[in-house]
Automatic annotation (TrEMBL):
<comment type="similarity">
    <text>Belongs to the cytidine and deoxycytidylate deaminase family. ADAT3 subfamily.</text>
</comment>
<keyword id="KW-0819">tRNA processing</keyword>
<protein>
    <recommendedName>
        <fullName>SET domain-containing protein</fullName>
    </recommendedName>
</protein>
<dbReference type="GO" id="GO:0052717">
    <property type="term" value="F:tRNA-specific adenosine-34 deaminase activity"/>
</dbReference>
<dbReference type="InterPro" id="IPR001214">
    <property type="entry name" value="SET_dom"/>
</dbReference>
<dbReference type="GO" id="GO:0005634">
    <property type="term" value="C:nucleus"/>
</dbReference>
<feature type="domain" description="SET">
    <location>
        <begin position="36"/>
        <end position="144"/>
    </location>
</feature>
<dbReference type="Pfam" id="PF00383">
    <property type="entry name" value="dCMP_cyt_deam_1"/>
</dbReference>
<dbReference type="InterPro" id="IPR046341">
    <property type="entry name" value="SET_dom_sf"/>
</dbReference>
<dbReference type="GO" id="GO:0005737">
    <property type="term" value="C:cytoplasm"/>
</dbReference>
<dbReference type="InterPro" id="IPR002125">
    <property type="entry name" value="CMP_dCMP_dom"/>
</dbReference>
<feature type="compositionally biased region" description="Low complexity">
    <location>
        <begin position="7"/>
        <end position="22"/>
    </location>
</feature>
<dbReference type="Pfam" id="PF00856">
    <property type="entry name" value="SET"/>
</dbReference>
<feature type="domain" description="CMP/dCMP-type deaminase">
    <location>
        <begin position="337"/>
        <end position="482"/>
    </location>
</feature>
<feature type="region of interest" description="Disordered">
    <location>
        <begin position="1"/>
        <end position="22"/>
    </location>
</feature>
<dbReference type="GO" id="GO:0008033">
    <property type="term" value="P:tRNA processing"/>
</dbReference>
<dbReference type="InterPro" id="IPR016193">
    <property type="entry name" value="Cytidine_deaminase-like"/>
</dbReference>
Amino acid sequence: MAALPFTATTSNTSTSSGELSTKNSLCRSDWVLNREGCCIKTAEGKGRGVYASCIIPPHTVIEVSPVLLFTRIEYEGYGRHTILDHYTFKWRDGRMALALGLGSLFNHSSHPNVSYAIDPAHECIRYTSTRTVNPEEELCIFYSHKLWFDPVGTTENLGPQVCLDQIEQPEFLDILAVDSEVVEVEPWDSGDPNDILEGEALPFIWKKLQIDEEEESMKDVRTMQAWAVDILDSKYIATMLKWLKQSGLESDTLSHLKRIRKRDCISTLLLSVSSSVPLLPTNVDIGDPYQISVPCNPALTQTSLVLKNTLWPTVFAPRRKWEPEKWSIAKVQWARDAISHILRKTVQTTSSDELPVVAHIPKPFEDEALLSRSFTAKDTRISTRHPLRHAAMNIIRNVADWRAKSSPPDLLPDPLKPVASSSDGSLGISDTSCNGTNYLLTGLTLFITHEPCIMCSMALLHSRVKEVFYIVPMPQTGGCGGSACLPALKGVNHRFSIAHWRQREGSAAPAHLDERIDA
Ligand SMILES: C[S@@+](CC[C@H](N)C(=O)[O-])C[C@H]1O[C@@H](n2cnc3c(N)ncnc32)[C@H](O)[C@@H]1O
């Protein structure tokens, strides 16, 4: 066993905490070789492999392997046609690289649980878990679609076998060429995972929804009638605020407005938008309620704030609920993994007659409680001969089926009971649908190879999806800005953010789909 590099790693980690000995006991007969609990075991039919000795959460950097670099001449003279051909790969500047540490022992899987990114600046490769990995589970990466061995334990559709000797370059970690988006050093490939990336540094472009909501002239400010009462003696303000809290009159409809307005020594309390006159306490010396016009929405700009404040003190909220939030490096890596996933899946569709559209909903980056597993769905219109089996429709349905199956019947919502309006992303317009909630994608992100068509975009809007990322724009049929932009329509009761994933030149791209086809 060529154990040299691993002996070194073992001695490094053997001095670490007592936590390590717990991990060691889980991986009894094997060495635990790093702090994340990776160990080496024999993998049936594959030689050695890297295994988890404890639970490894998703997005954990499980190994950072320094690489040894050989010039082309050195490699041709001394490395070529040796065992090294099974371990070395082409570095981006043309040199040959051998990963030290555990890096060279990750086996291949078509369903990898580990992603990797090379860091030329530090001459290393960083390996990251893509999902929760259980103890005793093998940690695998995706090498390439061109394999030179018969893979064990993988269901992928193999292309013709490639024999190392017949090709000019050692193709090992050809994987980096196929998944070429990880080859270039990008802003999200290094740095503090909490650093925020913006603008050009992001691998996608947010689509600005053109919505006429700025309300920057008085005639555009939308207003509603609300009840108010003057409190002549300021000593009653606290009493009235307390009373209001208990009165049941408070509602979200006024949450963008301040409760008290002070003008010319008179304090006025905003009560409610009820149609009937609110009944006020009789033991407090206040006037009679009266109706006034107040803004319907918070102020999105300073100009709008000044105008709205003339009617009633209004909250300044420059970011609308549906607008994209700030993205950290760690979150971009999460999205990049999702994009790599759909790209790999779409390659598999080329061997079938299906349309090459793939949709994916990963576990949410921030709040895994929203969805405890990820979903992937392909377009199945051809195999099912059903015109509605688009990838996005299929994935919404898959989520609904799974939720319906996995919730105890008494916890399932009554499909005919009206759902309350969503607190995340809804526009506060009451939801009168009577469709149950199983299918809702509230707070979730959809990644899809092609811009969803108008039908799918409407279904996604209805599902309350948080954001949609697509790779290929569909200018003739798309419903996310191509031929129409569904979430920007007036009167819709939900808006979702849209982003176009930028594919670098030469990187893997989804298979071509006729522009006239609904994706
Ligand atoms: C970088 S090495 C991986 C570590 C290797 N298993 C070892 O024992 O040193 C690549 C070699 O592992 C084997 N291998 C990797 N993934 C495999 C898989 N899914 N099925 C069968 N063999 C695999 C192949 O022989 C390949 O040439």
